[in-house]
Each structure stands twice: as structure tokens, then as C-alpha cells.
Amino acid sequence: MSQFFQYLLNGLSTGSIYALVALGYTMVYGIIKLINFAHGDIIMVGAFVALGSTSILVKLGLPPVLCVIITMVATGALGFLTEKLAYKPLRKAKRITALITAIAISFLLENLFAIRFSSRDKTSPTIFELGSFKIGNIDIQWKLVIIISILVISTSALTLFVNRTRMGKAMKAVSENPDAASLMGINVDTTISTTFIIGAALAGLASVMYVIYYSSFNNMLGSSLGIKAFVAAVLGGIGLIPGAVLGGLTIGVIENMVAAYIDPKWIDIITFSILIFILLVKPSGILGKNTKEKV
Amino acid sequence: MTFKKLLMKKYSRRVVNLISCILLISMVTLITPNISKAFTTIMITICINVLVAVSLNISAGSMGEVVLGQAGFMAIGAYSSGLFCKYVPMNNMFLEYLICIVVAAVIAGLVGFVVGIPCLRLRGDYLAIVTLGFGEAIRCLIENLDKITGGPSGLTSLPRLLNSSNRALGGYGAVLIAITTTVVCVGCIYSFMTSRYGRAILSIREDAIAAEAAGIPVTRYKVMAFTISAMFAGIGGAMFAHTIGSIYPSNFNLSKSIDYLVMVVFGGLGSYTGSILSATILSYLTIRLTNLAAWRLVIYSLALILVMIFHPKGLFGIKEFSMTNAILIVPGKIKLLFTKAQDAKNNKKETIIETEEVEETENNKMEAEDEEAKEAEALEEDNMNNGGKSDGK
Fold first, then answer.
1. Where are the domains of chain B?
2. Domain spanning A2-281 has what CATH number?
3. Which of A166, A248, B301, B305 is least buried, going by the fewest C-beta atoms within 10 A?
């Protein structure tokens, strides 16, 4: 039984990473109805930034935890740049055009990093060294506690931001109807850019969580993590913040259970099967509402 | 003028297209006996890529849905033909190849049908993701069913009919077989897409709701398009297996699917001649620029972004290249260019001359230009309706 709780805890912490990435997908999809394929690769970039910045911070004698801020700023800037350079000119174009562009950006980042840093595995930087503590029979690592609490804090902050601030309300309005929102005096372009920046900064946070949790990463981190986080977003109901969290945690737990009780080889197939199943049964996700198509 | 009218007749279009096809094929066959081994490989690769790109164009171009799992169907074709070769040994290599292609087409088509029925209820982004999921799931399955497929270490020592080192036929024969397979398949696809079924699929791309209102069973036609697309991708996969002789799951990953998507997008989503041309050019470049292999994907993705932002129609848009039109329109357009250039020259010289005269001549020219433009438009429209096809390969 104690083993089961161990797997559950591991599942919740991988799930937290997925959830944080899924939040980025969900926010962008909610506002401009685009599956931002490049989102996963922003996390990959974030992991490289975290690796580089920790070594610099250690040299300067500063605490390596500060790399969280550097990474979030860097990925936020990257998100802003991709939006301005690639997606903004396509705002009025067909959705298929934007989708292909997003795929292309994802490939561009992956391959640029493969050339610059080679595609071998990199060892994750040590951001802090913490042991573990025991509750009953269960061995709980501090890093798992930290990862799960980062998710809780950032999700509550995001919810507060979206519901209470002017910018957050503007985001909701733009996702509801951009034209009406601009008639109400909301600057749609700024709002969309802010959404991208927040989503990408969350991705930066996720990449720090990733390097805390896993011991190594490479330039393909984005595509596998991105697909799983996307599955999570769809599972919970794409466009919904609570949906992304619920979906992420569910996928994380299912994955760890499959790895523990069936066979790690089948993780990917089961993830894809969940995606296909949910899209066929209820495309709007667990928390989503079915909408009728209007002519 | 009479020559033009004669050319515009439906049957003469066919004759022109047939002649240009024959010319192209005979040109290729005349060149091939003297080619090197490397060039044989290039020719065969081009044939495979053209076929798969054209098959992807059915679903991505004509049906208008992004499919990110084409490599998965290729994998099914390759593995079913490879396994067939392995378990049913035959003496006649050519017969084996033919049967393999049929087996690959049937199995890939069946999988496409089974996958298509549930998936094609979705649209747009969701469909793209689901096909991506299926493509990857197929690859993972092949990797995990290692008792049948050999897992990550692949299926090896398969017969290599379409290879320059083929003893029975030689490189020349291999190229001929590859070209024939591709031409026959592309011809089948093209005539299917210009039939009433093809038109129904096009109408779904233009407006699914209007098509449904007009009595077209949308889901059924989508499944049909998807199945046929999967079938020909499977044939492409079988050809691939027969070319390199050993297949691995990693041959059919997501980046392969993206490669084909890039080809179709460059050629113009919906244009078959466009897909053929861009697949030929891109696969030639890919092989020739092997020392730039690392940069290839970077260049591809950059080019894809730029094409999407500045010229999302691609090379041909949804139009087809047609020899008849090339004969009819291009000289007119060149003439137009010349007259314009001359106009500019004349205008410079004649600025001193009275304005009235200049105006008059300009008016005349405008009229003439208008007529030319109208004629060209009518021709293009006509071409869209008749579907002039003129490629040989």
C-alpha cells in the first residue's frame, strides 16, 4: 500500500509539470484558437536557459534558485517574439495556415538547438539539494513537495489574475469575442501578447520544475512533453484553467501507474489512446461544455 | 486565333497532355540507361516522395484537413510488405513486388478506414492532433510488438527490387519500375479526384455545411478520401521497403510526416502538379545537400514559416499546371510584358509630344490589355473545369 502512495505522489508531481505546460496551451487556445505546437519547445529552451544560468549564478556566488526568474523572463520573451513575428501576421489567415506555422516554429527551435548544443542528453543542473522525509512508511522527497506546491501557488495566482485584474478580464473578453472586445475599448493585440507572455513564462517555470524532477534532458524534450501536456489540456477541456490542472494531474498519475503496474514501454501508447478516446467521446473534455455548431 | 480555338477543345487538351507525358517519360527513359548508381537512388527516392506527397495532398489539400500521420500509413505499408516478403518467399521478384504493393495498399487502406471512421468526425486542429497521435501510436506499436516486427532493431534483409544493386534488373530496370508505379498511382489519384467523388471532397473543403445541405454525406466522403490517401501512402511505404531492404520504426517518425507536409504546402495545398513538382525539387535538394543534413530541417522550417506568412498559396495555389495553358497563355503574357516595357520606353520619349495623342494610344492599349486578360482568365477557368494534366512523372 505504501508503494501505491509512492507511485501516486510521483504521478502527482509529473502531473504538476504537465499541468503547468497544459495551462500555456489552454490559455493560447482559449484566446486565439491556435494549438501552439511551439509551446513544448519553449520549455526545452527554458531547460537550456536554466542549465546555463545556474552555472553563471554559481560562479557569481548567487543562490542558483534565482535561475527561476531568469528562465521565466527568457521564455516569456521568446513567447512574445514568436507571437509578434510568426502568429500576428497570420491573425486573419486560415487556421490551417497558423497551425502549419506553429509546427514549423517547433521544428525550427528543436533543430536549431540540436545544431548548437548537439542532441546528446544534458545533465540537469542542481538547483538545490534536498533530502527526503518520512510519513509513516512513505518516503517523501522534498522536491516532489516543492513541485506540487509550485503548481498550487501558480495556478491560484493565475486564477486570481484572470478573474480580478483588468488585463485578466480583458483576456476573458477577447476569448469570448475579439471584435466585441475591441469595440469595448480593449486592445486586442496587447491582450493576446500578454497571454502569450504569461503562457511562455509558465512554461519557463515548468522547465525549472522539469530539471528539478528529471536528471537529464535533451533538445527533443519539447515534443514529448508538449504532446503529453496537450493531451492533458484536451482531457480536462481545452480553454479552461481548472481543466488543464485536472487533465495534467490525471495524465501524470495514469502514466506512473502504467509504468509501475504494466510496463513502461506502453506509456506512450496509452497516452495517445487516452487522447483519441477523449476526442472521440467528448471532444470538449471532462469539464468542457458541448457547443452546437452554428451556421 | 484558329490555332488557339483548336487547342481549347477538350480532346485536343488530352492530346497535348498525352504527347507531353510521353515526351517527358521518354526523355527520362532515354537519360536513365547511362546514369550512375547515385542517380538511380535519387530517381527512386523522388518517385516514392512524389507518390506519398500526392497521397497526402488528397487529405491535406483536397479535403482541407491537416494530417500529421502520413508516415504512420507509410510504416504500415512498409511493414506489411516486408512481413509478407519474409513469410511468403517467392522466386519471381517482380511478381513479389506487385503482390507486396497490393498487400500494402489493402492493409494501409483498411487501417486508414478503421482510423478514419471515428477520427473524421473531428475537424481542423483536433483532427491534426488525432492523426499525429495515431501516427505516433502506430510507430510505438511497431516498436513494442518486437516478436513480429523486430522492434527497434527493425526488419532486415528484405528483397531489394528497387535498388541500384538489384541483380535481376539492374539500376535501369529498377528506375523504370519505380517510375511506372508512381505514374500509374498518381494517374489513378488524379482521375479519382477529378471524378464526381473528387468534386464532392472538394466541396467539403470549400464549405462542409453547404455541402451537407446539398446532400453530400460529408463523413462518408471524408472517410473515402482518408482511406485512399492511406492506401497510396502504404504503396509508397512498400516501395520504400523494397528500395532500402531494411526498415526501422525510426524511419517513420513525426519528422517524416512533416517532410511530406512541407512538400505539399510548398506545391500548393490542393494542387497535384504542385505537389509533384515540389516533391521532386525538395527530395533532389535533400539528397544533394547531405553535407547540410543538420541544417536541412532548420532551412525547411524557416522556409515553411516564410511561405505561410508571405505566400500561403504555395507554388501553384489550388491550380494545376497544364501544358495547353502553358502554350496558350505564356506567350500572351510574355508579349504583354514586352508591350509594357516598350510602353514605358515610348512614354519617356514622347513626354514632350502633345498629351491628347498619348492619351489616345494609352486608351487603345488598355483595351487591348483588357481583352488579353479576359482571354487568359477564361482559359484558366476552363482549365479548372476540364482539369488539364500534363505532367509525365
1. 1-34+322-393, 35-310
2. 1.10.3470
3. A166
Q: List B247's β-bridge partners, or say none.
A: B155
**Cβ contacts of B140 on chain A, cutoff 8 Å:** 268-269, 272
C-alpha cell at B230: 492511406
3-class SS at A216? strand
Q: B35-310 maps to which CATH number?
A: 1.10.3470
How far apart, in whole angstroms, are the C-alpha atoms of residue B59 and residue B112? Answer: 11
Which of A122, A3, A128 minimizes the C-alpha distance to A64? Answer: A128
| Residues A143-165: tens digit of each pLDDT | 888 899 999 999 999 999 999 99
Task: Report the phi/psi class of residue A131: left, alpha or beta, with left for phi > 0 and alpha for psi in -120 to 50.
Answer: beta
Question: What values do phi and psi take at A133, rounded to 5?
Answer: -135, 170
pLDDT tens-place string over residues A9-35: 889 999 999 999 999 888 988 888 888
Q: What is the mean pLDDT of residues B292-301?
A: 80
d(CA B300, CA B282): 9
- Tens digit of pLDDT for each residue in A24-80? 888 988 888 888 888 999 999 999 999 999 888 888 888 888 889 999 999 999 999
pLDDT of residue B9: 67
Q: What are phi and psi of A262, to 5 degrees?
A: -110, -85
Query: Taking CB atoms and an 8 Å cutoff, what residues of chain B touch A36?
Result: none
Q: Cα(A236)–Cα(A287) distance, rounded to whole angstroms?
A: 6
Task: Please state, for a pLDDT cut of 70, what percent of chain B lies above it.
Answer: 82
* Cell numbers representing residue B202 in the block: 472538394
Q: Where are the beta strands (DSSP E) in A24-146?
A: 122-123, 132-135, 138-141
pLDDT band at B7 (very low <50, low <70, confident <90, very high): low
- To the nearest whole Å, the CA of A118 is away from the closest chain B CA by 10
ipTM field: 0.82
